[in-house]
Amino acid sequence: MLQVLTTGEGVPFLRSPEASFQGLADYPFAPRHILFEGLRLAYVDEGPRDGPVALLMHGMPTWSYLNRKIIHRLVAAGWRCVAADHIGFGRSDKVTDDRWYSIARHVAAHRLLIETLDLREVTLFCQDWGGPIGLAQAAEQPERFSRLVVMNTWLHHPAYAYTDALRQWNAQWQTDGLFGINVPEKLSLGWFMMLPLGHMKPADLFGIIATGTYPTLTAEQEAIRRGYDAPFVGLDRAGHAGPRRFPLSLPFDNPEGGAAEAQARWFDALLDWPKPIHFIWGGNDAVFTEDWGRAWAANYSQASFHLLPDAGHFLQDTHGEAIAEIVLEQMKAKQ
């Protein structure tokens, strides 16, 4: 097991060895770091410094690897792409104390990154928990952002109706829930990701948990699994505190940890967003449904809405090139 380190303030954390990230398929990006509360926040910064800036967010249980296909396409088009790993994920340090994590802290970490790099004229790409964390930046620093790309996410507000799928997700990560019990001892996050990405069936997941029987993956699928497992190789339950805290920070269950009041303020503030906003939605997602995405987009006269009918919740992985092309075409149409 990895040695537990501590910050100057005594916060315990683990640091994934860089060897775990070597040779990942389609992810040749070198890590960079800033310090946040004595912890390394890792990010990639690819493409020309003078190109249009994309800030790409990830959610649970992923990391910047999720956005690799969008990064490749945008860099080829002359963009600068910045994509960080939230504390607890990817190459960033992983605090082992569950109580350390809050949405407010994740927001503050990304605010520091934006200010440290002095990012301006930013196009935000956000999905899942990257929605609240990323949209907070646009709500609080609108002068730094020129365009929003919103994908299968939400902002908490009193009128928002949480789906049964999202409530079940929360329940499954409670201490007595399916994932609360079995991750990581029986089910790694890389293997978990094979289900929503369409690389295995529910029966395969239950087979892993019940009997330790793993389905056969193609070489391409195995490379993707390794990519999502890489941040957590050798980490025990304490090293998974970051992923565990996201589903347990949903505002209907944890209003304080989930920044419920702040999220509602950000939602209201962004209702007056005057700049381009593009909703790109995976239609095969029971967590954040097409109906919700269309209802949200209807608040903006300038919004575009693009449905990817066969895309699920993690559309950046399965449809990354298509997402990049949609944004590039939208920008070309406005010139």
From TrEMBL:
Keyword Hydrolase: yes
Domain of life: Bacteria
Stretches of the chain forming a coiled coil according to its record: none
Domain annotation AB hydrolase-1: ranges: 55-175
Example GO molecular function: epoxide hydrolase activity
Keywords assigned by UniProt, alphabetized: Hydrolase
InterPro entries linked: AB_hydrolase_1, AB_hydrolase_fold, Epox_hydrolase-like, Haloalkane_dehalogenase
Protein name: Alpha/beta fold hydrolase
Native source organism of the sequence: Phenylobacterium glaciei
